[in-house]
Amino acid sequence: CGGSLETAGIGGTGISYGTVTDFGSIIVNGSRLDDSTATVTLDGIPGDVLLPHRGLKQGMVVKVSGTFSGNTGTASTIEYKDNLEGEVCALAAPIVPPIVGIITLRVLGQTVILDATTFVDNSTTIINAGDIVEVSGLRDDLEEIHASFSEVKTSTTEVEVKGRIDAVDDIAKVLTINALNVNYLNIPGSAPVVDQYVEVKGTVFSCGGAIDTLTATSVELEPEGAGVIPTGDHAEVEGLITEGLNLGSFKIGGQEVLINGSTRFLPEDFDAGDILVGAKVEAEGSTSTNGVLAATKITFRENVKLESNVATVSGNSPTFSFTLVGLPGITITTNSATTPFPASPPSGHIRVRGIEGPNNTVLAIRIEDRGGSANAFLQGTVDREVGTEITILGITVDTILIVDNFPDSNPNFEDVHEQGISRATFLDLVQPGTLVKFKGDIIGVSITWDEAELEDD
């Protein structure tokens, strides 16, 4: 998502695979797509026309096919497929939203990771061991599922899981997906093969000490991630890097991505050196005949940037929760993946780079000590724009309070090319989903904002 429609998003017919971040149409990978006439399926079942967006919810990972123009477009089909639906077999303690730090649970033999970016449907629901949950998210290089959506189900007659086969015993008719043994004795057809990505469904399931078991009613090959993207189609694919950069290519799940000297990296302080296993990115480009996505742009999901003095802090290493002076509506959390490792509570004047979660939360990926500076930053995607007011992460900034000195040599409003523009032009380019950065100064316990910039994302 970016402020300039000419430079943001993709153009023509294509697909966008990623997490639903908001509605008002549907927003996926920063593109706002009209879904009013789209065909929606949820695990192969047509969406309910009586439900908002036919049953789609924030945090669900979807594949959208349609036409795109800049960061807008029209969806023709939207496919949602969960990662699993089954019983929580292992959980250290009941999960009480909102989630702080990292929480790990085992469902159908799969390791599921929940953090501050996970949208828990019905946020008042406590998740207990033995509950039936539906999970949608992205798999990492260890085949662990980083949940972007989780929902407690009242009941189910059938459990299901999608994943890669680790082992097959065709004598005993048992296949293994991580810590799940699947009995496929009554499944007709050829034997499953190691490394196939499959969907398994069943009605007889039991939790074990370390290995869970499921008697399958079906085992079917399943496209992984975005599946096969037609040659030459534009594509936006979000995911966790599962194989690092090697000879100019890396992998997001099973999708190979190629970069070259003209590939752009966003936000502006990222480059090819940040292509590391575990990083969350969006690759945008088009596919070649061998299915490789030739990336014109790589966007790192750490697009939130905040800077101020630490105001309040709670928790214990490595899961701290804190707020910043002048940004009281934003709750920032850390975990063991935060750099540097948070052994002690954040303090002083800091800069945070992180990933936006639900309910104005930010998961801190990088924290930098900025010493005695009085500078302040608020960078994130726009939630609302009303008149001259812009809201980001629950913080509303009235741009009328920022002096419009265009065409001064040091303008206070800039476009994505760092060119000075007027306030009116700036506001014309802003819409929900646009990445905006405000700069200001800390005055006591508040912030005076004096600059506004559009950031390419």
Quote the average pLDDT.
Answer: 92
Structural class: mainly beta
- Which of globular, elongated, flat, extended, rod-shaped describes the shape? globular
**Count of separate DSSP helical elements:** 1
Spatial extent as radius of gyration: 23 Å
Helical fraction equals under 10%
- For the termini, the CA-CA separation is 5 Å
- Oligomerization category of the chains in this entry: single chain
Spans of at least 5 consecutive residues whose pLDDT stays below 50 are 1-10
Please give the number of β-strands: 36
Strand content: over 45%
Major β-sheet profile = 13 strands, mixed
Brief characterization of the structure:
The chain has about 450 residues and is mainly β. The chain has one helix at about 425-430, and strands at about 10-25, 25-30, 30-35, 40, 45, 60-70, 70-80, 85-90, 105, 110-115, 120, 130-140, 145-155, 160-165, 165-170, 175, 180-185, 195-205, 210-220, 235-245, 250, 255-260, 265, 280-285, 295-300, 305-315, 320-325, 325-335, 350-355, 360-370, 375-385, 390, 395-400, 415, 435-445, 445-455.
